[in-house]
Amino acid sequence: MEKKKITIACDHAGYDLKIELKKQIIDMGFEVLDCGTNSKDSVDYPDFAKLAVNNILENKSEVAVLICGSGIGMSMTANRYKGIRAALCKSIEDAKLARAHNNANILTLPGRQIDVDEAKNCFKIFINTSFDGGRHKKRVEKID
Fold it and tell me: Structural domain tally of the chain?
């Protein structure tokens, strides 16, 4: 059976957290599609958000993790695309609700505002929570 693929991307401010999360994602048995960046050299976050979004839109992966300093820029960029529901999460409760109520397909994390353990827990909750559907389904459909 083929491993589920998770896309991950960051800018320079999210690089350290990306490295830590990438290890965890692999340890959890997923294949990682890493869209960069690959250093702490200053880059423009929209370039990397677009690469990750394209992986979802082209069905290369179902979900992605985006990381920048605040998480806001990556989230805003990703949400410009139809079918993308990027959720900025700073807690496990945010991550759970993003999946359960909003059917988020991108977890966006604030690299400068969250510690590594909380980010790892957010990913675990995000990837293991299913969309509740029901009353939430019609609301999510209205997004697009």
Answer: 1
